[in-house]
Design brief:
The complex is a heterodimer of chains A (520) and B (301).
Chain A: H1 3-9, H2 15-27, H3 37-44, E1 48-49, E2 62-64, H4 67-73, H5 86-97, E3 109-112, H6 113-122, H7 136-152, E4 159-162, H8 168-177, E5 186-191, H9 198-211, E6 215-218, H10 219-228, E7 234-237, E8 241-244, E9 247-256, H11 257-264, H12 271-304, H13 307-310, H14 312-315, E10 324-331, H15 333-341, H16 356-374, E11 388-391, H17 415-425, E12 435-439, H18 447-459, E13 464-469, E14 474-476, E15 481-483, H19 484-491, H20 500-510, E16 518-519
Parallel strand pairs in A: 3-4, 4-5, 5-6, 9-10, 10-11, 12-13, 12-16
Antiparallel strand pairs in A: 1-9, 2-9, 6-13, 7-8, 14-15
Helix pairs in contact in A: 1-2, 5-7, 6-8, 7-8, 8-9, 9-18, 11-15, 12-16, 15-16, 17-18, 19-20
Chain B: E1 8-18, E2 26-31, E3 65-66, E4 75-76, H1 86-90, E5 100-103, H2 104-111, E6 120-125, H3 132-144, E7 149-153, H4 163-168, E8 171-175, H5 181-188, H6 193-205, E9 208-215, E10 217-218, H7 237-251, E11 256-261, H8 269-272, E12 275-276, H9 280-292, E13 297-300
Parallel strand pairs in B: 2-6, 6-7, 7-8, 8-9, 9-11, 11-13
Antiparallel strand pairs in B: 1-2, 1-5, 3-4, 10-12
Helix pairs in contact in B: 6-7, 7-9
The chains are: A alpha/beta (520), B alpha/beta (301).
The structure holds iron/sulfur cluster (2 copies).
Residues 50-56, 73-74, 90-91, 93, 95-97 of chain B line the site of one iron/sulfur cluster (SF4).
Chain lengths: 520, 301
């Protein structure tokens, strides 16, 4: 077995996928991180995991360049002049994306596209029609822009934002996404009921039912939290990661609570009595190990990798060190809470049913939040060095582990109960938490229903809401999107451009994504 | 007003979230009791009032029903109920022991926690206009809480005579089951004169939110009306759709016209045998006809 040769010979990989797999194999020849035996044991057990970030980090995991500054100033490194009209702005953006590093090699954030482009539309009388919508030529430019993004970035973690204002560009993007059947880019509507008109929100909901995007982000909530941390403005990147624009996150390390439950508890016992001991014992140790790993990855990235000394993004001020945070992810809260509650399948105490496991889940979450908030990552400037919590969506190999704080697929309570119970669980996840709902295709005739559900969810504290109709080809796996038809191709042994399709196939098989409860 | 004076209604069921009973997300209140007997009724247990005979007690597998004695409806333990439907299936009257007497305040209290998610309520049935005072009071109180109410009616009671309901409702959803009186009688056991009168009256006032026709064919053998034309023994679906669309167009109504393809789920077996499902192509042809006649928005579901 020679992994290099195996990669070269693999007929299900495209050229770009092989290059990135080979680069990873090269990276694995080095092991510069200092990892304690205790941490290594937790990594080996799958309890602490860097989610494929690699053993020698040479770029931050999530980079959100300040594209507005780039469009204002241009870039000496890229030899791009400040654009003067819509077409120049589109080409300038297409020109920078491939220079934005990430784990997959494709940018995880390509901008708040409507806010970036609308000023060029407003400045050009020829770009707007008499109806306030884009003129045919501007509309075509935006359509081609979106198509090119899909071709250039065959990666479902490539994310763009819209809103909260309704703009001609934003409306055009929604129009073109509908019916286009593209998984890329992933899209969020930063939704503010006080600013976003209902008609725009309903257009977004109608688009989501057909194409599984955009999702809705609770804009007032994210905005206020990032302002309080001194990190405004924020954007939504990758799956649903709330992060500072002009920075991002150096790393995301996750704690698998489901695995912790299986390993650290001697037996499923009467929960309440053990909870305190569990929180102070196995859980606190695992949290400390996860934080230690975050510390070490940040130390190497900030101090040794040379990223900030060499990247034009840093030297041209499109990102700054002080706006990079670090993310503490978690998965499997449901499974841990069920184990601690001793709640057997089908029992009313199961997580998501409003009983004992819910209460325990809340307490576990509060415990983790306290420990993470009290820690300072050495050298990390953003938020005073505090890591931000993230309800991680899982990876393709996860089996029997629910994303973040979600209710397991197959155990979802009725929609209204799930929305009410899930909303408060989103609270501590400043760097993102979200729920996904599959709706009956009939919901397409009433997208206002989705907007009403979102309004209530956000008013109850929910952070992020995704949906699609059960008959849509583009399906939201956990946070990212894949096309069912592409997964089928992969099953037949054909290569597909989008690397996330491979993850999607694993998730279809392991996470029962297609078994998600369908809402009437 | 004392608590005793608050109107009390007989409520079959409350559905806190619905996407198919009006615009946006709505709570739906089903009132018990109906004066039509439609062949394709999907919730026949909401038709009759319970006589308190007790025949359903033994049918319940969950011990959720208890005898109240003295010919009163059984006591129903909601917490124990598994929603299996065995009680209604055992009821010879077509009733259900699960209907509850609730005051307006109690009813709205049950949906209060869902209020942030709701755009309004829809009052359905059974036939909700058979409890006119309760219906009016419910609509008024709900609107005062920021949840305007739609009324979903079979149209059997003339609404022109119900000014309080007209004033309190956000709009109406009306079923036009058949244009031809004999056909209507065959399908529902009732005369359609008041239905058509309501259609014209509500359309003229701009009070119609939605009109619906269930597209069902006569069952039991070939020649059952697959063409949708007025052939012998077939329902004249074309006539019903055309005439209904014409009334809407003439009144300048912006109501949506929904054509619902009959499906046998939940329908009493004996009655289901008298009906057949239309194919989607026929439904689309009829939708096209309604559009041609000038109906504002036509849906097939
Ligand atoms: S619901 Fe039917 S069976 Fe049960 S007591 Fe009432 S009338 Fe009798
Ligand atoms: S639906 Fe009726 S029979 Fe079934 S559990 Fe509930 S009360 Fe009992």
């Amino acid at each position: 077995m020679d992994p290099v040769l195996d990669t070269i010979r693999d007929t299900t990989l495209t050229y770009r996928q092989k290059v990135s797999a080979l680069a990873r194999l090269g990276e694995e020849r080095s092991a510069p991180l200092r990892i304690s035996p205790a941490l290594q044991a937790l990594r080996d057990a799958g309890i602490v995991c860097d989610l494929n970030e690699g053993p020698a980090p040479y770029r931050p995991r999530y980079i959100l360049p300040d594209y507005a500054a780039y469009l204002r100033r241009g870039s000496a490194f890229l030899r791009v002049e400040p654009p003067k009209d819509l077409l120049e702005a589109i080409f300038a953006l297409l020109g920078i994306y491939r220079h934005v590093p990430s784990i997959t090699g494709y940018p995880v954030w390509i901008g708040d596209l409507d806010a970036l482009l609308e000023p060029f539309v407003e400045a050009d009388p020829a770009a707007l029609g008499p109806d306030g919508e884009l003129s045919p030529s501007a509309d075509k430019a935006v359509r081609l822009f979106m198509e090119q993004i899909d071709r250039d970035n065959p990666d479902s973690f490539c994310h763009a934002d819209l809103g909260p204002r309704s703009t001609a560009v934003g409306r055009a993007i929604l129009r073109h996404q509908r019916g286009a059947g593209r998984a890329v880019p992933n899209l969020s509507l930063r939704y503010d009921p006080a600013v976003t008109p209902d008609a725009f929100a309903e257009a977004a909901a109608a688009c989501a039912l057909e194409t599984a995007k955009p999702s809705f982000a609770n804009h007032p909530r994210f905005e206020a939290e990032f302002a309080a941390l001194g990190l405004a403005p924020y954007a939504i990147a990758s799956c649903y990661n709330g992060l500072p624009i002009g920075g991002g996150s150096l790393t995301l390390v996750r704690l698998n609570l489901a695995r912790l439950a299986g390993r650290a508890l001697p037996a499923p016992t009467g929960a309440a009595a053990d909870l305190g001991a569990f929180l102070a014992g196995p859980l606190a140790e695992a949290v400390a190990a996860t934080l230690a790993y975050i510390d070490e990855r940040c130390r190497f990235l900030l101090g040794e990798s040379g990223f900030f000394a060499s990247s034009f993004l840093a030297s041209e001020g499109l990102v700054s060190r002080s706006r990079f945070t670090a993310m503490f992810g978690l998965v499997g809260l449901a499974e841990l809470a069920n184990a601690l509650a001793g709640a057997a399948p089908g029992s009313a105490d199961r997580f998501g049913r409003g009983g004992a496991a819910d209460e325990i889940g809340q307490r576990v979450l509060a415990g983790i939040d306290r420990l993470v908030a009290a820690h300072r990552v050495p050298g990390l400037e953003a938020a005073g060095g505090r890591a931000l919590l993230h309800a991680q969506v899982g990876i393709d190999s996860d089996s029997g582990v629910s994303p973040g704080c979600r209710v397991p697929i197959g155990e979802e309570p009725p929609l209204h109960e799930q929305l009410l119970r899930s909303a408060p669980l989103h609270a501590p996840f400043v760097a993102g938490a979200g729920d996904v709902f599959a709706f009956e295709p009939t919901a397409k005739s009433n997208p206002g229903q989705i907007v009403d559900a979102v309004k209530g969810f956000f008013a109850s504290g929910g952070r992020y809401f995704s949906c699609y109709a059960a008959d849509s080809d583009v399906v939201r796996v956990t946070g990212y999107l894949v096309k069912r038809s592409e997964v089928e191709k992969l099953r037949r042994g054909e290569a597909v451009a989008n690397g996330a399709t491979v993850l999607g196939k694993g998730a279809f098989d392991n996470l029962r994504v297609l078994d998600r409860a369908v809402r009437k | 007003m004392s608590a005793a004076a608050e109107p009390v209604g007989l409520v079959a069921r409350i559905l806190p979230f619905s996407a198919v009973d009006g615009p946006g997300n709505r709570a739906v209140v089903f009132l018990q009791g109906c004066d039509f007997d439609c062949s394709y009724c999907h919730n026949p247990e909401t038709r009759a009032a319970c006589s308190g005979c007790g025949a359903c007690l033994a049918a319940c597998p969950a011990g959720a029903l208890a005898d109240s004695g003295a010919g009163l409806p059984p006591r129903w333990d909601q917490a124990r109920c598994r929603d299996c439907g065995a009680c209604a299936a055992a009821c010879a009257l077509g009733s259900s022991p699960r209907a509850r007497r609730l005051s307006v305040g109690e009813l709205l209290g049950e949906i209060e926690r869902y209020r942030p998610f709701l755009r309004g309520i829809t009052v359905s049935g059974g036939e909700c206009t058979l409890q006119p005072d309760f219906l009016a009071a419910l609509l008024e109180a709900s609107r005062a809480r920021g949840l305007p109410g739609l009324v979903d009616t079979n149209g059997g009671s003339p609404l022109a005579a119900r000014p309080r309901i007209l004033a309190a409702a956000e709009g109406f959803m009306l079923d036009v089951k058949a244009w031809d009186p004999a056909e209507h009688r065959a399908l529902t056991g009732a005369d359609n004169a008041p239905v058509l009168e309501n259609l014209r009256f509500l359309a003229g006032r701009g009070a119609l939110f939605e009109v619906r026709t269930v597209l069902a064919l006569r069952g039991g053998g070939p020649g059952g009306g697959e063409t949708g034309g007025a052939q012998e023994g077939a329902f004249d679906l074309e006539g019903t759709v055309r005439e209904t669309a014409r009334v809407l167009a003439r009144a300048g109504s912006r109501a949506r016209y929904r054509l619902i393809r009959y499906r046998p789920y939940g329908v009493r077996a004996a009655r289901a045998a008298t009906l057949a499902e239309p194919d989607p192509a026929l439904a689309e042809r009829l939708a096209e006809l309604a559009r041609r006649e000038g109906a504002a928005e036509v849906f097939v579901s």
